[in-house]
Design goal:
Layout lengths: L3 H17 L1 H10 L30 H8 L2 H8 L6 H11 L1 E3 L14 E3 L2 E3 L3 E3 L12 H12 L4 E2 L7 H8 L4 E4 L5 H14 L3 E5 L9 H7 L40 H10 L3 E7 L2 H9 L4 E4 L13 H12 L5 E3 L6 H9 L4 E4 L1 H10 L1 H22 L12 E3 L1
Parallel strand pairs: 4-11, 5-6, 6-7, 7-8, 8-9, 9-10, 10-11
Antiparallel strand pairs: 1-12, 2-3
Helix pairs in contact: 3-14, 4-9, 6-7, 6-15, 11-12, 13-15, 14-15
């Protein structure tokens, strides 16, 4: 009989062999950790990628195409989480804890997905979240994203560190675009950017709250090490902000980072007084902060953990959404982002009280894979899946999606 030590070592060697298998690694990347029963007869084949957006069956089909097309450092910037990437994974795992409770015998021959977001009606509650440096993924960058948003009449939020100006994004969208704001350490910079965005026609300023320390992006660094290009010849850390169009003509006063350590509720009050249009806070994860935001006249909040990019070990947004919705009641709209990949994910959030759902990485996968056509296809599939999920649930419109239609398990 084998000794306990020998059994342990044999098992360890077997697991090491399995873990080193290219087949296992390839399928783990493509599919994640799924149960072996039921058997998967058609796993995603990373050796046979789609070559046309219409071939995609889901948004995940675009990610490996983007990885093939985009330089390793740029892909790593998009894909990375922070530290152990626990929150990055938790955002997806959170949806598995919530089941849908469909109602039968409801007429769903007509589905109305129109959503009113701060007084403006869009064809869908699916919003394009702010993502930086889109031209790192495709030459058309945020312009392609804006044109895709126009095709499906989606609300778009433009990042402070976009590679397209707020003026050009609004022109491409053909309608107002919200502007996401990093105040930076200098209040004067924030003032200048707010004035510029509002002058361009941005009806809402979306202040991001959660970038307070340098992010330890291990996936990004590991992929950057495989990049054979001389990245330093094009840009460096000290000129990161000055290279972004939205900072053109603004005196940065030596500021070179979006990290903000001096942002307080007093400054939020000051910003509320300065912003002429709507003020939205992005990065809320605690009911207490949601209440404070409502008390000082913030117009809406986005429940967000930045897609797991800035802090690890925090809750999945779908997990904290119900308590935040309960905290603000009907007094303030609540939006949500981080980890949304399927129409079923979207309807779960809407049923739990979110008025809109913001997506980020999926449309970047489409952009990096096929440009504007890829973004359009990603949004088309998400709309299709959301519509189907509403029909199956027995919800002809967004107002019919209620907490009774979901159950935590």
């Amino acid at each position: 009989m084998l000794s306990r030590h020998t059994q342990f070592m044999s098992r360890r060697h077997l697991l090491q062999f399995i873990a080193a298998s290219p087949f296992v690694a390839r399928n783990a990347f493509a599919e994640g950790l799924r149960p072996s029963d039921p058997m998967e007869w058609a796993p995603r084949d990373l050796d046979k990628l789609i070559d046309n957006p219409k071939q995609a069956l889901d948004v995940f089909d675009f990610e490996p195409v983007m990885k093939k097309n985009v330089p390793p450092a740029h892909f790593g910037y998009m894909a990375t989480g922070v530290d152990d990437e626990v929150t990055l994974r938790s955002n997806r795992e959170g949806f598995r804890k919530i089941e849908l409770r469909p109602r039968r015998l409801v007429d769903v021959s007509k589905i109305d997905m129109s959503a009113e977001i701060l007084g403006v009606t869009y064809d869908t509650p699916i919003v394009l979240a702010p993502t930086g440096s889109n031209r790192a993924f495709h030459p058309d960058g945020e312009t392609a994203v804006a044109k895709a948003a126009k095709t499906g009449n989606h609300l778009q939020i433009l990042s402070t560190v976009a590679t397209t100006s707020i003026e050009d994004a609004i022109a491409a969208r053909g309608a107002p675009v919200w502007f996401q704001l990093y105040t930076t350490q200098r209040w004067e910079v924030a003032e200048s950017m707010v004035k510029r965005a509002e002058a361009a026609g941005a009806p809402a300023i979306v202040l991001t709250l959660d970038v307070r320390s340098p992010a330890k992006w291990e996936t990004f660094v590991r992929l950057r090490r495989t990049d054979t290009r001389d990245c330093g010849s094009c840009h460096g850390l000290n000129d990161y902000l000055s290279r972004k169009p939205n900072f053109t003509g603004i005196d940065l006063g030596g500021v070179s980072s979006t990290i903000v350590t001096n942002l307080t509720w007093e400054r939020i009050k000051r910003l509320r007084e300065m912003v002429k249009g709507r003020l939205v806070l992005k990065g809320i994860l605690a009911a207490e902060d949601a209440k404070l935001a409502a008390d000082i006249g913030v117009d809406a909040i986005v429940v967000s953990n930045h897609g797991g990019r800035v802090e690890d070990g925090v809750s999945a947004t779908i997990d904290v959404l119900p308590e935040i919705v309960a905290a603000v009641g009907d007094g303030m709209p609540v939006m949500v982002d981080s980890g949304f990949r399927r129409g079923s994910d979207i309807v779960k959030a809407l049923a739990l009280g979110a008025q809109a759902v913001c997506i980020g990485r999926p449309y970047l996968w489409g952009l990096g894979a096929f440009g504007q056509a890829g973004v359009e296809r990603v949004l088309e599939m998400l709309r299709f899946e959301t519509r189907n999920a509403m029909q199956q649930l027995g919800a002809p419109s967004l107002k019919d999606l209620t907490p009774a239609m979901v159950r935590r398990v």
